């Protein structure tokens, strides 16, 4: 394992070095939080693909392939569909807004007062996403170094917190680009063909496994529908995804670069399912489907290649973890703390805000590591996060982009009713049930439409400013949201 260890150590040292280099570039709020909005198509595509394809997409995607066969691709496939929909239909408008958070977009569209409550929901989602990504380090470092769960989480989490705190989005962008390359080589170009060959090829795989393993819909229609609701719609509204859209240097870059990244996700989804199917042929009696990735890597790959593929898995986890961490810190600082203490954002102060955002990343990072150590049920935590996100925020965000008649009262009602409905239904049906997100989303939509129609339309001056911003003819937001005129 000495060669494999060397590969991993060099990779981790490289991540820290890029964090240090990124610190030299992040000299303003814009540079620190959104990489100066200067990413071109190649870097934008690579980093966007890196953040959406994390440990759940890699280790979990292979596990679903082990359990269900080719239809196990649907979870990651719906992530790719969501990214494609975001890129084609919404990313250009989002990029032109020149904001830092989803809540700032809601304030612009509705005239203020929607930010704090939506920020709390978004903060909970990004925190849980960072936590579940951090927990995934335990699986990888257990294979690598045979260390216990707590040490693995602290080791992996500390590296991510270190480079994210140092250089913010610039460090994360640079490391994500490397992680994208490592992931592509390790999973698509090495593990996929080796796994298929070791399993005897597709003909042998079909001969040894039940026919439902090769049914594209074998995982079940209801499961696929739930994946679409949670992951496809979740891609449309998550702060971690939007913050990457904000890094694009133009709306064209956001649209076409995101389309390339979404297409890459579709390929990655199929690859993970095929690898899992091959693992089922080779190791039909594993205790858990999530062991499939680590087992096939450890037992079937040659020295050196094994280290690179494990580095690819580590890259997948780190890219999602760092993206969720900076999103969580950005929301906590800009949407919650700054608003609660009434801090004004004036021209000329952006450079001074770097230190504050750096402190928030460090604090949120320590909170993420501590929560990850204490938390046992990862699936329940992630389900709760996505259900709250979709049930509470999908309607007011898409409603604001698509329906002129929506009002701030309707948006607040949608967030409150949808979020409370999801929590209440989870108490009745269980956290992992499908009903909470189904009925929570319907309740949010009903509240949004009813309350919006029952209240005064959004003031025309607010809508005019919103249209100017969408058209890209308004300067970047540097002041407190304008309150709704009385």
From the structure above, extract its key features.
78% helix; disordered C terminus; Na/solute_symporter; single chain; 486 residues; transmembrane; mainly alpha
Fold and architecture overview:
It is a single chain. The chain has 20 helices and no strands. It is globular and about 65 Å long. Helix content is 78%, strand content 0%. The chain has 486 residues and is mainly alpha-helical. The protein has helices spanning 2-25, 29-34, 41-52, 55-68, 74-97, 102-110, 115-135, 137-145, 149-198, 201-208, 221-237, 239-245, 251-282, 292-300, 305-340, 353-374, 378-402, 408-429, 435-454, 460-470. Mean pLDDT is 86; it is low at 344-351 and 477-486.
Quick synopsis:
This protein has 486 residues and is mainly alpha-helical. It contains 20 helices and no strands. The longest helix has 50 residues, at 149-198.
Rg from Cα:
22 Å
Q: How many helices?
A: 20
What string, H for helix and E for strand, traces the elements in order? HHHHHHHHHHHHHHHHHHHH
Structural class: mainly alpha
Low-confidence stretches: 344-351, 477-486
What percent of the residues sit in helical stretches (DSSP H or I)?
over 70%
Strand content: under 5%
How far do the termini sit from each other?
69 Å
The largest sheet, given as strand count, sense and whether it forms a barrel, is:
none
Please state the overall shape, judged from the principal axes of the Cα atoms. Answer: globular
DSSP, total strands = 0
Mean pLDDT: 86
Task: Present the secondary structure layout.
Elements (H helix, E strand, L loop, with lengths): L1 H24 L3 H6 L6 H12 L2 H14 L5 H24 L4 H9 L4 H21 L1 H9 L3 H50 L2 H8 L12 H17 L1 H7 L5 H32 L9 H9 L4 H36 L12 H22 L3 H25 L5 H22 L5 H20 L5 H11 L16
Helix pairs in contact: 1-9, 1-15, 3-9, 3-12, 3-13, 3-15, 4-13, 4-15, 5-11, 5-13, 6-7, 6-17, 7-15, 7-16, 7-17, 8-9, 9-13, 9-15, 9-16, 11-17, 12-15, 13-14, 15-16, 17-18, 17-19, 18-19
Keywords: Membrane, Transmembrane, Transmembrane helix, Transport
Membrane topology: Multi-pass membrane protein
Subcellular location: Membrane
